[in-house]
C-alpha cells in the first residue's frame, strides 16, 4: 500500500527485501550466473538451494557462460569506440585512454581476423589469441576496467546520442535556391492532392554493440581448457562455447548448506 502511495517500483523494493526473506524464487539465469547473483544480492552461504526441473541445468549453464560476436557488431563497436575517443580524448586520463586504445585494437584485430577467414574453424583460446596477436594484452585488466567503469552504460548513452544525430542529419532538408523552393512547393502541393503523406514507422532500437564485445572479452578470460572458439561463415561470427559446466555447480555447492 505504501509503495502504491509513493509510486515506487516493486522490482527495487523486492531486491532490497531479499536478505529478510526465508524463501526466494529465482530463475536459473540468476541462480547459476555469478555476476547476476552478485548484482541481485543473492548470498548462498549456509542456505538451501532447490533446483526444480533440473534436467536442463547443464545446457543453461553452458549457454550462460558462452558468448558470440559478429562482424556487424564489431564494425559498430569499432566505429563507436573511435568516435568516443575522438570526442573525449582531451578529457580522458592517460590510463583510461590506454584502455580505450586497447579496446579499439582488440576490436580491430578481431574484425580483420573474421573477415580474413575463408572456412569454419574450431580452435582453443590460446590459438585464437595467437591468431589475433594479442598475447601481450592483459584481457583480465581490460575486462576489469570495462566492468568497474560501467563502460557499457556510458557507451550505450553515447551510442543513442549518435543514433539521434544521424537521424537528425538524414531529416535535414538541403538548402535550396529561390527557384528550387518554388518548384518544391508546387511538387508538395501536387503530392498532397494525390495522396496523403504516409507516416514513417518509428526507428527500430538497436542494442549497443559494446555489450556483445564485453561478453566476449569476459569469455576469453576463462581457462583455456574450459571452452573453444568456433568461427562460422554464415553469418561471419565468433562463438565461445563453454564445455566445462561443472565449475559453477561446484561453486554453488561449496557455498550453500545443501543443494
UniProtKB/TrEMBL annotation:
Residues 1-104 form the Helicase ATP-binding domain. It comes from the Eukaryota. Residues 178-209 are annotated as: Disordered. GO terms for cellular component: nucleus. The keyword Nucleotide-binding applies. GO terms for biological process: establishment of sister chromatid cohesion. The keyword Hydrolase applies. Gene3D superfamilies: P-loop containing nucleotide triphosphate hydrolases (3.40.50.300). InterPro entries: DinG/Rad3-like, Helic_SF1/SF2_ATP-bd_DinG/Rad3, P-loop_NTPase, RAD3-like_helicase_DEAD. GO terms for molecular function: ATP binding; DNA binding; DNA helicase activity; hydrolase activity. Transmembrane segments: none annotated. Keywords: ATP-binding, Hydrolase, Nucleotide-binding. This is Helicase ATP-binding domain-containing protein.
